[in-house]
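Table S4 entry, TetR/AcrR family transcriptional regulator.
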Amino acid sequence: MQVNPQPELPAANDSDTRRRLKRVARQLFAERGIRDVTVREIAREAGQRNQGAVAYHFGTKEALLTELLIDGAERIEARRRVFLDDIEARGTPVSVRDAVAAIVIPSAEFSDEDAEYGAHFNRFLLQLSAVDSQFVDRTLEGRWNEGYQRCLTHLRKAMPDCPPRVQSRRFLFLGNYISSLLAQREAKMVDGLRHPTWRARETLDDIVLTAAALIEAR
């Protein structure tokens, strides 16, 4: 199920200060939620004497959230394109399990492997969705979710006997299930010695299998 080719990642052009602010913001938002973290606190925790550092570099809190979201989404997209290209190159119909894996694996491995942009991202994404369920779709639609839409297209083809309205409802369940589990896994991975189950590759495979079962349930 694992695909190893390295994706072509976007070039980073942030200054050291901007990267530091974003790392701190991503972690604070992930751990405490979006509303409970102020821009002044982000600046202070990032070691900035100027409490207006976030406003100077990003403008508004919403602009910072948008940039954090796109930072992660474009890198996950790069990984997901590689994953999907490999599956589609087989020349056989894409199964439900493969399509679900293309949703799960790139997001999980991004969090595990990209210390600069991936650390805390799945928890940040869950917190962002909780405070504004439409923020992610509004921000990513038409640009940074093409790979995810490809996955849904494969899922629709793999379940032709399921009415479209039922498919859409299950895709909603699927997104929430995967997002919640990946966020929980990410939190547990911080303390891998106490939670070795979450670090095991078999656990990631089981997330894929149980998510696929949700889609295929009769």
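Residues 1-6, 8-12 have pLDDT under 50 and may be disordered.
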